[in-house]
Input
Amino acid sequence: MSFDEFDIHRLIDGELAPDVAAEVSAWVAADAARMARAQAYRMQRELLHARFDALLNEPVPPRLLAAARTPPAANQPRFLRVAGQAVFALVCVAGGWLGHAWVASGAGGNDLTTSLPRRAAVAHAVYVPEVRHAVEVAADQEAHLVQWLSKRLAVPVRAPALTRHGFSLVGGRLLPGDNSPVAHFMYQNEAGKRLTLYVVANPANRHAESAFRFERVDGVSVFHWIDESCGYALSGNLSREELLPIARTVYSDLETHGKRGG
Amino acid sequence: MVALIPRLRRYARALAGDRPRADDLVQDTLERAIAKWSLWRPGTDLRAWTFTIMHNIFVNQVRRSTRDAMATDPAALAELELDDGQVADTLVRINGIERALAQLPDEQREVLLLITLEGLSYDETAHTLGIPAGTVMSRLSRARARLDELLEGTRRGESSRPLKVIK
Output
């Protein structure tokens, strides 16, 4: 198969299916100039994150919170005003917890964003080598597994389908978290490579929602984020760009179903 | 929507340059999003929808070029896993990236930031900016090549260290 310069971009942006990505990787590695370009582009991404990610952890200025709750103009149709009021109510609730998180973060209160990737990476490292006891409940009882974990976490959890990335569900287990139970799902591909999804409930928005982030913890790649119902971390012994498209699938699956269900 | 504000601020800051202007852009985006709330279809990506609104406001504004300095995130730097010599070299590059970014044409900067900083897929980027997928590809490729030239210029100008491969 022949590749072109655009494939270098597709590779580092996680746009390729795993088998094609492996071929493009080999093609890039075979040529020093291509390799240098791939390295330079990866470094650009790291530099951009190093430069701008600090904004994600800054408290939101009050004027922006206020902008998100500006009532719609009076001449709008009534249904728009009702929609606006719904947003306003949402913003008030969210503003409440953001304000809380803002205060709490000063006292070191909101640390799920920090603890989540580390705990998930440890759980990944502990259970992935298990042959006979990798999971407590196997995928052939998926409905039971999901129902059980949802009950224990007291929020609906689900195991997103990752078959388009070549990974199928092995099963799951219940783990202890900082203060609450954790749902832990394991996936495996045909090569025997395993991924784990670590899910912890976020009751009453105790932890501020956070954006999609990447971290490497002791050689394990972890994409993690927190939404209004749970904190999630997807871990794997894969490169950032191999894990990114899979993490995107998990993210959009959970976001879509979470909104619909809640 | 409030949960999206930190990401909107990061994108706006990288796109628009200085902080007050970036927060103005976020404020305009939020106000317009609230006013147009009925147009958002539940089940679709709220994030992509708000990025589209921000893009439309951005391209319609007069663009100034003043930029202020911003503290570098130490945690992000730690993630690069560098030795001390590389840290010094990387600090020069981190300071250089913002200046280099500012020199890209707006349409290239938008594509580069949505993909590399925001992690959008090529399809999502095309949809957000209302451009064909092929245009995303060509702008991204030109942006990266140009950024690389500009960063190399920065490095030669401010550091005598040899180029090191990071990661």
Observations:
- Residues 122 and 136 of chain B are 7 Å apart (CA to CA).
- Confidence is low (pLDDT under 50) at residues 62-72, 159-163 of chain B.
- Chain B touches chain A through 56 residues (CB under 8 Å).
